Amino acid sequence: MTDKVWTGMNCAKCKVSDKICRKPDGHGPEFCPSQTRRQIIDQALAEYDRPRVQEFARQASIQEGECFANRHLKPYVMQPVKTRLLELIEFAREMGYRRLGLAFCAGVAQEAGVLTEVLENNGFEVVGVACKVGGVPKERIGLKDDEKIHLGQHESMCNPIAQAMLLNEAQTDFNIAFRLCVGHDSLFFNYAESLTTVLAVKDRVTGHNPMAALYTVHSYHQKLKKGGGGSQPFDNMRFFDRFAPSE
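The chain above was modelled as a monomer; its predicted structure follows.
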């Protein structure tokens, strides 16, 4: 990793109301990449000229528009009407995909089964691989016993590289990442040969809705905003000892 301080763009800090990335006569701050990084923008546009990329991008944008109803009404008020799951089915169908890869967390095996049934009933072939495939102990990647979830027991490592390689072998048309861990999902994306979409991500505290922490960053999760993310590990042993039955 570089130690160089980055002083360039950060669109998340843009406070301009009439953004140039949203309207032709708009404006941008001094770090706006739409204004200062035109060479890279042009390089990206050249990639869209590749037939397969262009068609994928075109169908994705069509899918985006079709998620809203009554677009012909003026003035228009957004009316979203499609779930992520329905979008996934429609997009895969429009792209002509038949064999879908499903890389899922073993903790949602039941939900993965339901998802597989839904996809198969909609005409797709599904190749599913759970994260614990291979049953490899976590010690294989250097974990110590006190770094495991269940201390003193065998614990299989998540194996996203094997998940990707197995789906590569199956020659899937399109992959679905389903509640993989932070970091494990990154390895899967890196090793998968087919493009991948995300149906759900893992967030153990919020019922797999990580936006909840952002929506409550000014209240219940304000410690994160003040730089307290991970600074004080939760002592779960001391916490639950208070509820242990007395001998």
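Residues 203 and 209 are 6 Å apart (CA to CA).
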